[in-house]
Every structure is written in structure tokens, then in C-alpha cells.
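User: Let's play a game. I give you a shape written as C-alpha cells, and you guess the letters that built it. Ready? Here's round one.
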């Protein structure tokens, strides 16, 4: 008869996310995970499978949560520019908070690029979902006259997606909240009519 689990799976997964975000897949050892997750080796394998499967589950969970928060902020306001600003500033707050000083999604992209299909499937899905949301909001903003009439929503959405990535990298490099807010301000000014 199997022993019941003596830990909370979601808490353990959140701790794994933090370790992978800070150290990447290759930089994270199984002993580091066990210590952070406060579980034994057998519990890790019984509950999550191997390190790779744990990493992919952690990446999916982190990506879903992070993207959900960004998109919720983006659509929280009827005013398009205000919604985009909320999304970007929320991303900044997350990037500089003690709770999420490193981004697992950015780490996955920089560590693996396009070399690992299972990792790329997760990062591509998140990027695509975010891109579509930005493009939808931008089209709406152009149609309503809130944004520059000659703005290309597809290109601007790519720009905003790159801005999100750049904000996380800059935060990881030690950029202050004020510096990151300045980047957001420049990005927003690029969208408004002259």
C-alpha cells in the first residue's frame, strides 16, 4: 500500500519554479530541488516524474500564471492604452518584486532557444497567446482613434512582446523600478498619435 503524500503538491511545484527560474534547467540539480521543495527523492519521482518532466510542468504553470496576469491587466480597462500600460507596469512590478525576481519563461528561451521542441512548444504557445492579445487591443485602439492611425497592430504587438522580454532581462540585470517604468513610458509613447 502506497504511503500518502506528506506535502502539498502546488507548494512544492511553486518552489521548483523558483529554483528553475533562478538557476535554469542545467544549473538546477536534483538535490537543489529536493531541498527547496522539501520533499524526498522518491516523492519527486512518484509525483512529478524526472527532473525534465518537473521542469516542463513548472514552465507550463509559470507561463500560464504569468500570461494570465498580464492579459487580465491588459483587458481590465476599456481604454486601450491604459490597459496596455497596466499590463506592462504589472509585468514590471512582478519583475522587481521579491516574489519573482527571475522569469522562468525568459530563462527557458535564453537557455534552450529553439533547440528543444517540448520547451519551445510551451514558450511559443505563451508568446502566441500574448501576441494575439496585444494585437487585438492595438487594433481596437486604432479603430477607436486612441492610437496612431498608421500604427501596424501586428508589428506593434511584436514590439510590445519584445518589450516584455526586455523588461524581465533588464530587471534580472538589476534595473530599478524607475528605469523599468521609463522603458514602459517610451514604449507607450510609440503607440500614440502625434
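Assistant: Ready! My guess for every position:
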Amino acid at each position: 500500500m502506497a504511503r500518502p503524500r506528506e506535502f502539498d503538491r502546488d507548494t512544492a511545484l511553486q518552489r521548483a519554479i523558483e529554483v528553475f527560474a533562478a538557476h535554469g534547467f542545467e544549473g538546477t540539480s536534483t538535490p537543489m530541488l529536493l531541498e527547496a521543495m522539501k520533499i524526498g527523492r522518491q516523492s519527486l519521482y512518484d509525483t512529478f516524474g524526472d527532473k525534465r518532466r518537473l521542469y516542463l510542468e513548472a514552465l507550463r504553470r509559470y507561463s500560464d500564471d504569468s500570461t494570465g496576469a498580464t492579459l487580465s491587466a491588459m483587458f481590465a480597462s476599456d481604454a486601450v492604452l491604459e490597459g496596455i500600460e497596466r499590463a506592462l507596469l504589472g509585468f514590471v512590478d512582478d519583475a522587481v518584486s521579491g516574489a519573482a525576481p527571475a522569469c522562468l519563461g525568459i530563462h527557458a528561451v535564453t537557455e534552450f532557444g529553439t533547440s528543444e521542441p517540448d520547451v519551445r512548444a510551451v514558450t511559443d504557445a505563451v508568446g502566441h497567446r500574448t501576441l494575439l492579445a496585444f494585437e487585438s487591443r492595438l487594433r481596437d485602439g486604432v479603430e477607436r482613434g486612441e492610437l496612431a492611425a498608421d500604427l501596424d497592430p501586428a508589428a506593434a504587438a511584436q514590439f510590445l512582446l519584445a518589450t516584455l522580454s526586455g523588461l524581465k532581462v533588464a530587471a534580472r540585470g538589476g534595473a530599478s523600478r524607475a528605469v523599468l517604468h521609463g522603458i514602459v513610458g517610451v514604449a507607450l509613447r510609440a503607440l500614440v498619435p502625434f
